[in-house]
Amino acid sequence: MQAPMLTVKQLAFGFHDRPLYHNLSFTLERGSMTSLIGANGVGKTTLTRLIMGQLKPTSGEIMTAPDMRLGYVPQFRNIDPEYPLSIRSFVQLNQRQSRWPWHGKKEQQALTAALQETGLLARQQQRLGMASGGEKQKAYLAQALLTRPNFLILDEATASLDIKTKTELMTLVRELNAKHDLTVLFVTHDLELAKQYTQQYLLLTPEGYELNQTKLMDESRMPQELQPAEEVH
Ligand SMILES: Nc1ncnc2c1ncn2[C@@H]1O[C@H](COP(=O)(O)OP(=O)(O)OP(=O)(O)O)[C@@H](O)[C@H]1O
């Protein structure tokens, strides 16, 4: 059996004198989809930064698979309508030598494949600033896919998208998960999406954490601000 994609053992971390976790242990199996949930400020983004190696644990261990290739999709940010790049050129920014005219054939093929996988190929010449919220977020996803990740972290990537667009994005993520055996960590406030699209959840609380299957989630015990699912607008 292959090693898990990620193993966290007895992790402790805090900023200054404020501890965020003191004995956090969990495993992400390859090809699994996990929601990381918890109230604002409980430490979800910080945990992703620890996993990505941007922060060092106070104690404990974070072990990643030797062949791990990480992709990261940031929180949805709107892009100015005046933003001049096309969807294709924007996605290309994540490639080395991206802006050179002699861009390699292989890179162009990888770029086209990422646009195809995210359903953006037909719209690639559209200016990103004029694209819909869903297309913008898919463009970030396509950027992440360019590095051929086997582990994808989505950091509140669906926040502030409408319900149809969220569902479409998560359906796409699940297809990629099935096609590439992609391990997914989905940071979210949305319990409905967590239940619908991921098999397990890791709930962070100020007291500790809970790791469980989403089908066994007891929503009445979830932090108040996670219920009901975040506002759609
Ligand atoms: N670089 C930093 N220095 C000091 N404190 C920080 C730093 N980054 C985050 N914090 C604090 O650590 C706590 C956890 O922050 P984090 O962003 O991980 O929470 P979160 O669960 O992702 O919140 P949200 O749901 O609001 O995005 C917060 O109180 C935050 O203010």
Automatic annotation (TrEMBL):
<dbReference type="GO" id="GO:0005524">
    <property type="term" value="F:ATP binding"/>
</dbReference>
<keyword id="KW-0813">Transport</keyword>
<keyword id="KW-0547">Nucleotide-binding</keyword>
<dbReference type="Pfam" id="PF00005">
    <property type="entry name" value="ABC_tran"/>
</dbReference>
<keyword id="KW-0067">ATP-binding</keyword>
<feature type="domain" description="ABC transporter">
    <location>
        <begin position="6"/>
        <end position="232"/>
    </location>
</feature>
<dbReference type="InterPro" id="IPR003593">
    <property type="entry name" value="AAA+_ATPase"/>
</dbReference>
<dbReference type="InterPro" id="IPR027417">
    <property type="entry name" value="P-loop_NTPase"/>
</dbReference>
<dbReference type="InterPro" id="IPR050153">
    <property type="entry name" value="Metal_Ion_Import_ABC"/>
</dbReference>
<comment type="similarity">
    <text>Belongs to the ABC transporter superfamily.</text>
</comment>
<protein>
    <submittedName>
        <fullName>Metal ABC transporter ATP-binding protein</fullName>
    </submittedName>
</protein>
<dbReference type="InterPro" id="IPR003439">
    <property type="entry name" value="ABC_transporter-like_ATP-bd"/>
</dbReference>
